[in-house]
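ok, trying the design again with the full structure, not the truncated one.
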């Protein structure tokens, strides 16, 4: 028996993955599966928003667990001190707006997964971090959709 995964589900899964996110899902949905730009945008943004809540909820407990071991404690102490010192000193006035802009930039390593890690490292509260990441994903989706539609128009 052959099981075929529907195109809409593949789009959501690709959008939820840490490397591709909306940057890979929207071109896939429009270019390969023939979705309209609106369908591709909605499916991809939804898929990219899915991992944000679990990431924000579980990064803390996972790091707390790893800190019980000497090497984990040493690593996280160094990481938190370094990140907070560099970020807070250089970008204290930007905060959540900077996080949203960072997530919105449609380049590798600047999506929601990295945004959740940054929010955790800087100690942002859950709902503030969620809102900043969600805003970034929505903006990134608009940028990627407009780019794909523009390229299609040119071709």
């Amino acid at each position: 028996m052959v099981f075929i995964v529907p195109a809409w589900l593949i789009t959501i899964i690709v959008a939820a993955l840490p490397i591709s996110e909306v940057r890979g899902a929207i071109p896939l949905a429009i270019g390969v599966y023939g979705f309209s730009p609106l369908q591709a945008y909605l499916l991809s943004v939804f898929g990219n928003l899915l991992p944000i809540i679990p990431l924000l909820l579980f990064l803390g407990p996972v790091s707390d667990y790893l800190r019980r071991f000497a090497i984990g404690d040493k690593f996280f102490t160094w990481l938190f001190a370094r990140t907070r010192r560099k970020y807070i000193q250089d970008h204290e006035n930007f905060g959540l707006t900077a996080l949203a802009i960072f997530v919105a930039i449609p380049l590798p390593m600047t999506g929601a997964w990295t945004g959740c890690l940054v929010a955790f490292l800087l100690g942002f509260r859950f709902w503030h971090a969620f809102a900043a990441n969600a805003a970034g994903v929505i903006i990134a989706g608009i940028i990627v959709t407009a780019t794909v539609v523009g390229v299609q128009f040119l071709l």
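Keeping the full-length input from now on. Residues 50-154 form one domain.
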